């Protein structure tokens, strides 16, 4: 009987291996079309994703701006291709959080899915979207928190966060905002993700010149979920976490550099708008983390933050002093509180630095001025170095005891 079972298993192995092979997106049969004549009004959109075989799939709509999210399970992520600026609609590809490929399509306005059908032969997913009024638009609204999957201290591999390296240097984790399937703010052909990645490399060089060790959450154009960004910082034993952004808000609402620290009670309207923009990036990853933040966990986190929060504020003050000395124009309230998820780490001093706003002409000019960026990077590096010196002095004083 066992011999028969073994023979049957050997016979099935080729088909099992074949079934395990990921599906491949066929670019020749992948099409995106706008139906009807252009009469100045929104029109239906037809999307066809050609595949080597039929696969399980999920389709969802999200807002800010309106986008279609398509998950193709058991599917290999297509190779990146350069966007065609002549095309008003274009797909962005990246990995799906539960495996497979994810496609993101930015929509021209509120729409709903009229139909979504997976055909077996030839294999293809066909989706049709139709325009709807704003009151009929029904995007997903998943709750988010980066505390989901918080690793235990033993899993960090570097001791507790905030411990200096053996040679006395500190380690900073830089987080260029957005990336991959989430470009962040976009003005014309400019994406926040690309601008911040470039600046992160410049700031890394300035920090290393000060003897500070630097790790980046991403080194290229890839999507990193919010949870993983803070987990990277913790796993690296970061002494300081800095997230870099250059957002977009309606004209006149924000201009100048701003540094944010964690404050879930903040009632600043611009900060609330920005928090929605930042945290919505994880909707692209389909995360539903609503079952976290139990009372016990919250109490422990609050205790940890009693030490961490003042250190975050001190780092922000050092940075503002150096930016002011370097002649960098800042918001009239340069240090502000906000409930950005990347600032939630209870055990790592964390800052979110808005270099400026892509929607402000003056800020946009600065962001593309090499001299301004160099001054900004140098001032931030000086601020981090002076904060680190104060941290070391406090540590020595605390160790001396009464």
Would you mind describing this structure in some detail?
- The chain has 402 residues and is of the alpha/beta class.
- It has 2 domains: 22-136, Immunoglobulin-like (Sandwich); 153-400, Aminopeptidase (3-Layer(aba) Sandwich).
- The chain contains 7 helices and 16 strands.
- The protein has helices spanning 2-20, 192-209, 226-235, 269-279, 295-325, 361-367, 370-400, and strands at residues 25-34, 45-51, 57-62, 67-72, 91-95, 101-106, 111-120, 123-131, 171-176, 186-187, 190-191, 213-216, 240-245, 257-262, 330-338, 350-354.
- The protein has a 6-stranded mixed beta sheet with strand order 12-9-13-16-14-15, with helices on both faces. The chain has a 4-stranded antiparallel beta sheet with strand order 1-2-8-7, with no helix packed on it.
- α2 crosses α7 and α5 crosses α7 (370-400).
- The chain is elongated.
- The termini are far apart.
């Amino acid at each position: 009987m066992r011999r028969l079972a073994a023979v049957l298993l050997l016979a099935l192995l080729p088909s099992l291996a074949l079934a395990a092979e990921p599906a491949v997106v066929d670019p020749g049969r992948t099409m995106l079309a706008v139906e009807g004549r252009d009469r100045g009004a929104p029109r239906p959109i037809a999307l066809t994703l050609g595949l080597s075989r039929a696969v399980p799939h999920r389709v969802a709509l999200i807002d800010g701006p309106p986008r279609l999210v398509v998950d193709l399970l058991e599917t290999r992520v297509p190779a990146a291709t350069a966007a065609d600026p002549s095309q008003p609609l274009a797909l962005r590809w990246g990995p799906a959080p539960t495996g497979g490929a994810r496609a993101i399509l930015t929509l021209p306005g509120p729409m709903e899915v009229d139909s979504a059908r997976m055909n077996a032969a030839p294999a293809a997913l066909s989706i049709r979207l139709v325009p709807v009024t704003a009151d009929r638009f029904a995007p997903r609204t998943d709750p988010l928190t980066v505390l989901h999957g918080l690793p235990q201290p033993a899993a960090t591999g570097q001791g507790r966060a905030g411990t200096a390296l053996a040679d006395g240097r500190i380690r900073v984790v830089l987080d260029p905002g957005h990336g991959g399937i989430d470009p962040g703010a976009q003005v014309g052909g400019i994406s926040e993700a690309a601008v911040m990645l470039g600046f992160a490399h410049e700031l890394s060089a300035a920090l290393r010149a000060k003897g500070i060790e630097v790790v980046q959450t991403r080194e290229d154009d890839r999507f990193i979920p919010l949870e993983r960004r803070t987990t990277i910082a913790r796993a690296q034993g970061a002494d300081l976490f800095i997230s870099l952004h250059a957002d977009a808000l309606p004209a006149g609402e924000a201009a100048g550099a701003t540094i944010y620290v964690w404050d879930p009670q903040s009632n600043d309207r611009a900060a609330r708008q920005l928090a929605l923009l930042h945290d919505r990036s994880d909707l692209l990853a389909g995360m539903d983390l609503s079952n976290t933040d139990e009372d016990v966990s919250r109490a422990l986190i609050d205790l940890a933050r009693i030490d961490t929060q003042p250190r975050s504020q001190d780092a922000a003050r050092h940075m503002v002093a150096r930016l002011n000395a370097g002649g960098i124009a800042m918001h009239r309230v340069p240090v502000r509180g906000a409930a950005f998820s990347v600032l939630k780490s209870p055990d790592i001093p964390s800052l979110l630095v808005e270099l400026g706003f892509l929607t402000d002409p003056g800020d946009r000019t600065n962001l593309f001025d090499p001299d301004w960026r160099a001054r900004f990077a140098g001032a931030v590096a000086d601020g981090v170095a002076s904060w680190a010196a104060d941290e070391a002095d406090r540590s020595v004083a605390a160790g001396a005891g009464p």
